[in-house]
Amino acid sequence: MAIVVAVAAVLVLALCGCVGLTVLSSFAEDPVGSGEPYHPGYVPDEDEGTSAPPRDPATTPSGGPGTLTVVYEVAGTGTADIQFYDANADFFQVDGVETPWRMALTANDRERVQLIVSPADLTRDDKVTCSITINGKVVSRDSGVYGATCFGW
Q1: From CA 90, how far away is CA 7, in angstroms rounded?
Q2: Which helix (H) or strand (E) holds 16?
Q3: DSSP β-bridge partners for residue 68
Q4: Long-range contacts of range 43-47, CB-CB < 8 Å, 24 or more positions apart?
Q5: Residue 94: strand pairing partners
Q6: Residues 102, 107: Cα–Cα separation, whole Å
Q7: How would you write 18-35 as a 3-class SS string?
Q8: What is the pLDDT of residues 2-40, one digit of tens each?
Q9: How far apart are CA 125 and CA 145, in angstroms?
Q10: What DSSP assignment string belongs to 85-149?
Q11: Given CA atoms 43, 46, 51, 56 in this order, what sign does their dihedral have?
Q12: Nearest to residue 150, comparing CAs of 13, 12, 4?
């Protein structure tokens, strides 16, 4: 029962973050990509529609070089579904990513440095681990069978 409650709590937190980010991002301009390749199989949400091509996450803020050097890392067995904020504080979700996975970026806002990970197949006992390193120091690490969440603050 505790596992069901924990999974439900993670899903509710992820949903709240998506809704809040959607409202905030409606006031922002379109992000500018960094030019670095990134192809983990991004699938747009239903709300985004299917006519727009998927966009790559920015690794450098569109407003400048960024003051924080951030590294997102995911380890585990099997594949994982990953949610994170990019350098422009835009929210991304990628599903079915092979682990290990890593992404480096620069950012300006520690509150928009976040990583949520869950095994792609919740019927298996695949453990996932996330970690966030800022300016060379690991600031957050979490691990679990049903998911992990890391924050940059």
Answers
A1: 24
A2: helix 2-25
A3: 107
A4: 43/93, 43/94, 43/95, 45/18, 45/93, 47/22
A5: 42, 82
A6: 16
A7: HHHHHHHHCCCCCCCCCC
A8: 565 555 555 555 545 544 444 334 433 333 333 344 444
A9: 6
A10: E-TTS-EEEEEEEESSEEEEEEES-GGG-EEEEEES-TTS---EEEEEEETTEEEEEEEESS-EE
A11: negative
A12: 13
- Lowest mean pLDDT of 38-47, 52-61, 81-90, 106-115, name the range: 38-47
How many C-alpha atoms does 116 have within 13 Å on its Cβ side? 20
Percent of the chain exceeding pLDDT 70 equals 63
DSSP 70: E
Look up tokens 């993670």; give the residue.
10
pTM more than 0.85: no
